[in-house]
Amino acid sequence: MTDIAKAFTKIFWGFMLVFLNLNINQFDLFPDFIGYFIIVSGLSDLSTFSSYFKKANIYAILLGVASIPTYFIGEINILEGFIPSTSTILILASSSIMTLIHLVLIYYLLKGSIELANQHKQESLANTTKNNLKIYVIVVLSVAILTPFALNISEGAALTLITIGAIASFVVEIMILILIWQYRKIFNNIQA
């Protein structure tokens, strides 16, 4: 496997750990901070190819450090009901901030990936990445903007809004994972 493919493999598995939320007795088997630090390792390997990877690395480090407390605090479980309270508002606020930082991380990762694809004459991959980036930004910003409104509507409507946002977020995160895996496959074949 080539160095670029190895770097994208690390990034893929790092995001997979962040994406997975497997709990046993309230114990998260895959803490987000471990995933973010694996992403940091992959981005460091790519930093010579684009300054965007260096910028993404800063946000991955920030998310890795910031997600350590959430490992101990926990997250909102929308299946248990949604009751606005001070702690709910604080958790939603910190979650929204983390989501926006994650958005910036993805933005710089994909901008660097576009540069890398163009450097290696992979125009189709670069165009796919540009389109996925637009979709990702639109969906994530829409969810981030609409989520606070859940505090001011009925519980049923709030659960519906949060569920739709969660599904949309799930779909675009899968889209990004698939794209990262495509980079891994293509760059393994290019430099093999």
Brief account:
With 192 residues, the chain is mainly α. It is built from 6 helices and 2 strands; from the N terminus they run αββααααα.
As a whole number of angstroms, the C-alpha radius of gyration is 17 Å
- Tally the structural domains: 1
**Mean of pLDDT:** 88
Largest sheet: 2 strands, antiparallel
The stretches of 5 or more residues where confidence is low (pLDDT under 50) are none
**What structural class do the secondary elements suggest?**
mainly alpha
Measured between the Cα atoms of the first and last residue, the distance is 7 Å
**With helices defined by DSSP (H or I, 4 residues minimum), what is the helix count?**
6
Portion in beta strands: under 5%
Shape: globular
Q: Could you characterize what this model shows?
A:
Helix 3 (51-73) runs antiparallel to helix 4, helix 4 (86-119) runs antiparallel to helix 5 (123-146) and helix 5 (123-146) runs antiparallel to helix 6 (155-190). A two-stranded antiparallel ribbon has the order 1-2. It has one domain. 78% of the residues lie in helices and 2% in strands. It is globular. It has 192 residues and is mainly α. The chain crosses the membrane at residues 7-27, 33-53, 60-83, 89-110, 131-151, 157-181. Keywords: Membrane, Transmembrane, Transmembrane helix.
